[in-house]
Write a structure and sequence with these properties.
The chain is elongated. The chain has 3 helices and 2 strands, in the order ααββα. The protein has about 80 residues and is an alpha+beta fold. It has a domain of about 45 residues. A two-stranded antiparallel ribbon has the order 1-2. One of its GO terms (cellular component) is cytoplasm. It is found in: Cytoplasm. This is Peroxiredoxin-like 2A. Belongs to the peroxiredoxin-like PRXL2 family. PRXL2A subfamily. InterPro entries: PXL2A/B/C.
């Protein structure tokens, strides 16, 4: 995974996109763990959105997060 990340054009494109927008990171931690975003509804609604990074810099769409959050129904008490 480490070496394949260095050879992928899309990883370098994501790096330069982040660098141009001013993101520098803190250079702490291992740096090779991919992340993800989950939006989980109340009660039995379950997972409304799941996004797992497939490569370094793979971002979730803010619009899809907002749409999933709007689908959360309050749980009856």
């Amino acid at each position: 995974m480490i070496m394949s990340g260095f050879f992928r054009l899309s990883v370098w494109q994501n790096f330069f996109r982040a660098w141009k927008s001013g993101y520098s990171g803190n250079l702490e931690g291992e740096g090779f763990t991919l992340g993800g975003v989950y939006v989980i509804g109340a009660g039995r609604q379950g997972v409304l959105l799941e996004h797992r990074e497939k490569e370094f810099g793979d971002k979730v769409s803010l619009q899809s997060v907002l749409e999933a959050a709007e689908k959360i129904k309050p749980q009856a008490s």
